[in-house]
Amino acid sequence: MTMLNPATDAVLRTHYQKSVAEYWNNNPNDDRVNTKLGEVDGLFHHHYGIGDPDLSVLTGPEDTREERIVKELHRLETAQADFLLDHLGDVRPGDRLMDGGSGRGGTSFMANQRFGCQVDGVTISEYQVGFANDQAAHRGVADKVRFHFRNMLDTGFEPGGMRGMWTNETTMYVDLFELFSEFSRLLEPGGRYVCITGCSNDVTGGRSSSVSWIDAHYGCMIHPRSEYFRAMAENNLVPIDVVDLTAATIPYWELRTKSELATGVEKPFLTAYKEGSFQYLLIAADKVGG
After folding, report:
1. Model confidence, pTM
2. H or E segment at 193?
3. Are residues 96 and 163 in contact, defined by beta-carbon separation less than 8 angstroms?
4. What number of other Cβ atoms are within 10 A of residue 191's Cβ?
């Protein structure tokens, strides 16, 4: 059930934003994957994985096969978050970071554990805010890791207060020019923004049916690769590193097809990645200027 908050209309300013929030507040099918994987060690993510899976999980006793697959999928999604954090640069305990579209907080908790700094997560899902703040209290880090019911296009945070920021598979729900304008406002000069996202491949000359299927499934609007760089350039964000993770994520999706948690979205993802119409990128960019 959707939770009610008197500030809802101030945060969710369009019908589309309200529909996205409704999806993540109430959708039981995709949440089933996130919940099951997070139960492995209490670290709940809302993204996919990278790396070479240990395929030995597919052999052995049948009664524990699913448990082994779930643990391996969770290891791969945690490896993805670690890879993102590797690109944040020099972060000190006194710095402040922001997780844009923070979900249930997995990457935020990893960042706090790694750097010892304050982390603020923002999400338009009131359910996710409550869940993540409960997790922060349970972990004993509520004084350092906080989650807010705010719109990442207009956070209300003070300008120049963030040393680093990231989005992990959330940019496909927003206008990139609006988003990077706000992120540029929030970052201190020389601050770092890291993005992991799926994007359509401009070289193929259009959107494939598989990419359109993914869009429809998640109610999102996948952007072409070039739009990320145009929006960054317009908002004083200069890429320092771009990593194509497409080949690194395909094994995760192939393993997920073997799991009871498969939702049916695996096939279009694999088709789009393998045909080259869809790419999985990490982009790290520095804020230049004041």
Report:
1. 0.94
2. strand 187-200
3. yes
4. 27
Contact 239, 232 (CB under 8 A): yes
- List the Cα angle 71/75/79 in 5-degree steps: 170
Residue 256, both tokens? 């997920």
Q: CA-based angle 42:47:49, to the nearest 5?
A: 90
| Mean pLDDT, the chain, whole residue set | 94
Q: CA-to-CA distance for 101 and 192, rounded, in angstroms? A: 17
Torsion, Cα of 239, 230, 276, 44 (10° steps): 60
Which contacts of 41-44 are long-range, i.e. CB under 8 A and separated by 24 or more positions?
Answer: 41/74, 42/135, 42/138, 43/74, 43/78, 43/106, 43/109, 43/110, 44/103, 44/104, 44/105, 44/106, 44/131, 44/135
d(CA 235, CA 178) in angstroms, rounded, equals 9
Residue among 195, 10, 199 at smallest CA distance from 100: 195
> Which of 56, 41, 51 lies closest to 109, judged by CA?
41
In which element (H, E) is residue 187 found? strand 187-200
- From 79, 20, 62, 38, select the one nearest 261 (Cα to Cα): 38
**Cα–Cα distances in angstroms (integers) from residue 123 to residues 37, 48, 59, 198, 213, in the given order:** 20, 18, 39, 19, 24
Which ranges of the chain does DSSP label H, i.e. alpha helix?
8-11, 15-26, 28-38, 65-86, 106-115, 126-139, 176-186, 209-218, 225-234, 246-256, 266-275
In angstroms and rounded to an integer, the radius of gyration of the C-alpha atoms of the chain is 18
pLDDT digits (tens, 9 = 90+) for 83-93: 999 999 999 99
Please report which confidence band the pLDDT of residue 206 belongs to, taking 50, 70 and 90 as the band edges: confident
Tell me how far CA of residue 118 lies from CA of 93, 108, 189, in angstroms: 8, 9, 18
Residue 66 reports pLDDT greater than 80:
yes
